[in-house]
């Protein structure tokens, strides 16, 4: 079941214009508290920067939204980035854009374009994902089946997460919740019923979307 769209992973992107350097730091953030902690960490890490402009959206319904211009002219930085996030239909992410002023003023329109462009670069680099209610299946099986299972992942509607190697292979298999029964059937077919299902749970999981 589809829950919301977000970014897949942490990413950074840089944009230089008129000798000003803009670096966007984008990260998934499940709660406003997690987002604020990320903002604080970035401000501390880049405390020598001219500005550290933050914006975040959290909640499946995008109910938590916040941005700051961090000393830039009002409405030229934080809010344009926030509007970009919502226009992309994204939530549960935070972006902090670090700016080192290059000595040439960009004007209000130029600032807004620079901040939104840098944010978009980071979002694209992080990857857009769909967060779905998922089945998380932990399996144990013989090494002889690993290549075939890996080759079927994606095409068969599941992803393989953590893999451990002992006397057998341990693998965490993730799929949309409605596909759990199909994955169990596939694993039984591939291994002749020898794969052992060690655990099964339901959780929200990120699925990277293909670039349009």
List the helices and strands and how they pair.
Layout: E1 2-7, E2 11-17, E3 20-28, H1 32-45, E4 51-58, E5 64-67, H2 78-87, E6 93-100, H3 107-126, E7 128-141, H4 146-152, E8 159-165, E9 169-176, H5 180-191, E10 196-208
Antiparallel strand pairs: 1-7, 2-3, 3-6, 4-5, 4-6, 7-9, 7-10, 8-9
Helix pairs in contact: 2-3
Please sum up the structure shown.
With 212 residues, this protein is α+β, with helices and mostly antiparallel strands. It contains five helices and ten strands, in the order βββαββαβαβαββαβ.
Descriptors:
single chain, 212 residues, alpha+beta, Ribosomal Protein S5, domain 2, 5-stranded antiparallel sheet, 5 helices, 10 strands
């Amino acid at each position: 079941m589809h829950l919301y769209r977000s970014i897949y992973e942490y990413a950074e992107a840089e944009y230089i214009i008129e000798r000003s350097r803009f670096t966007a730091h984008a990260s998934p953030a499940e709660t406003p508290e997690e987002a604020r902690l990320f903002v604080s960490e970035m401000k501390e890490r880049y405390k020598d920067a001219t500005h550290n402009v933050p914006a975040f959206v959290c909640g499946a319904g995008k109910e938590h939204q916040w941005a700051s211009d961090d000393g830039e002219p009002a409405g030229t930085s934080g809010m344009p980035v926030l509007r970009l996030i919502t226009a992309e239909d994204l939530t549960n992410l935070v972006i902090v854009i670090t700016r080192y002023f290059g000595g040439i003023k960009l004007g209000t329109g130029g600032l807004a374009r620079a901040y939104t462009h840098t944010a978009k670069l980071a979002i694209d680099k992080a990857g857009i994902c769909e967060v779905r209610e998922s089945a998380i299946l932990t399996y144990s099986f013989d090494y002889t089946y690993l290549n075939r299972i890996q080759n079927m992942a994606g095409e068969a509607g599941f992803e393989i997460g953590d893999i451990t190697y002992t006397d057998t292979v341990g693998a965490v298999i993730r799929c949309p919740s409605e596909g759990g029964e199909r994955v169990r059937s596939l694993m039984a077919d591939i291994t002749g019923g020898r794969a052992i299902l060690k655990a099964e749970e339901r959780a929200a999981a990120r699925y990277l979307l293909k670039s349009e």
